């Protein structure tokens, strides 16, 4: 028995079996949808809020604000509710209705604006007024430190230190930065592979940031390779995962899986781990599974 917060992390590592031609190359999915609020962002949300409270940067009377494309907002809404904190989330109006409703169910106020860049500007302006505390996942070291503390060590433990490639979507880049820091420290030869959308693609949870909005926590030297993912490939792989492997996740997971398959086809042997970022039920109102 324990508190809900204790259920964050220690997610399963599940082997992909339907797509393997070479038995010496194994692909595993890190099942982050098993977190209480349904995504990998539970880890960062907990670490950002708990660390800010421990440092005294916020108190129970503080009002928090954050721009989000969805998963971080849902996780923050859950964690803020557990700590009794007031939270406003700013999200693109193109986000699925399920995401807004879930945030509101946890007790957060949701503001919808045109796009992610506009949301970030709005949140930063409100924080600059002094009335709000911005968690700023894009520049907050507590974002990637969550993955040094938990995600990286779990992957290392569950592969018995045999992982050769780590593949992750890149949004705020917290997951790939933290896992890279931990895994490279254990074995510098582990390849860190990030994925971003092609210029013309829109993949929720994966971004190709304009230079002015590139997350400040991102360090390109910590990523060995970046693979561009076409939207149609991300959709195809997302549908294949749920129908052939029973892994019900969003499009960013499909993108990461596509990248993992690309790498797997290039090597003779290895153990690849990709992040299955969230659960697919928050995309049912879209045409992702149509």
Automatic annotation (TrEMBL):
Pathway: Amino-acid biosynthesis; L-cysteine biosynthesis; L-cysteine from L-serine: step 2/2. One of its GO terms (biological process) is cysteine biosynthetic process from serine. Residues 6-278 form the Tryptophan synthase beta chain-like PALP domain. GO terms for molecular function: cysteine synthase activity. Keywords: Amino-acid biosynthesis, Cysteine biosynthesis, Pyridoxal phosphate, Transferase. PANTHER family: CYSTATHIONINE BETA-SYNTHASE. This is cysteine synthase. The gene is cysM.
């Amino acid at each position: 028995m324990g508190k809900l917060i204790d259920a964050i992390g220690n997610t399963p590592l599940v082997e992909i079996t339907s797509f393997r031609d070479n038995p010496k190359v194994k692909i595993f999915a890190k099942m982050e949808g098993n977190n209480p609020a349904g995504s990998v962002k539970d880890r960062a949300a907990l670490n950002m809020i708990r660390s800010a409270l421990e440092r005294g940067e916020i108190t129970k009377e503080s009002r928090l604000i954050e721009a989000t494309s969805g998963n971080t907002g849902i996780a923050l809404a859950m964690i803020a509710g557990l700590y009794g904190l007031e939270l406003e989330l700013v999200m693109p109006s193109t986000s699925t209705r399920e995401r807004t409703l879930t945030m509101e169910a946890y007790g957060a106020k949701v503001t919808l604006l045109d796009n992610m860049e506009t949301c970030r500007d709005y949140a930063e302006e409100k924080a600059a007024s002094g009335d709000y505390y911005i968690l700023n996942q894009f520049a907050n070291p507590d974002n990637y430190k969550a993955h040094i503390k938990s995600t990286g060590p779990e992957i290392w433990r569950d592969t018995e230190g045999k992982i050769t490639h780590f593949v992750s979507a890149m949004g705020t880049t917290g997951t790939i930065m933290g896992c890279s820091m931990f895994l490279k420290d254990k074995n510098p030869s582990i390849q860190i592979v990030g994925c971003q959308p092609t210029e013309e693609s829109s993949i929720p949870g994966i971004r190709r940031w304009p230079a002015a909005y590139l997350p400040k926590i991102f360090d390109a030297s910590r990523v060995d390779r970046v693979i561009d993912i076409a939207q149609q490939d991300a959709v195809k792989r997302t549908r294949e995962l749920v129908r052939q492997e029973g892994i019900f996740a969003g499009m960013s997971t499909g993108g990461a899986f596509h990248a993992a398959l690309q790498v797997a086809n290039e090597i003779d042997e290895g153990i690849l781990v990709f992040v299955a970022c969230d659960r697919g039920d928050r995309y049912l109102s879209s045409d992702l599974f149509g």
